[in-house]
From TrEMBL:
Basic residues bias (residue ranges): 64-73
Organism taxonomic ancestry: Archaea, Nitrososphaerota, Nitrososphaeria, Nitrosopumilales, Nitrosopumilaceae
Organism: Nitrosopumilus maritimus (strain SCM1)
Superkingdom to which the source organism belongs: Archaea
Record region (Disordered): 60-99
Protein's UniProt name: Transposase
Amino acid sequence: MITFENRVRYEYKIKTARVDTLVKSILTHRDPKSQEAKDASKFLDVLITEIDRFYEEHSDILSKKGKRPHPRSRLPENKEWNENVEKYYEKNPRKRPKK
């Protein structure tokens, strides 16, 4: 049976993948000033606020499992989250993302 923590991590992974896919399609759009691209950009803003809200609600679980807010996130940097992420990577050095 899947635990609540894993469910939260998978849900966050799906949400970030959705944002990354939309960003890639906006950046490679053939006509970036078209109405379609503008609407996609507005939808991207909605998705980013959704991810921010989700991260704030489940920040203790996500940060303790090595997840930081999405790079496009508008959340202010939190000292507690960064400490939790660093502790996780000290315990699990192989899971540190490649730069």
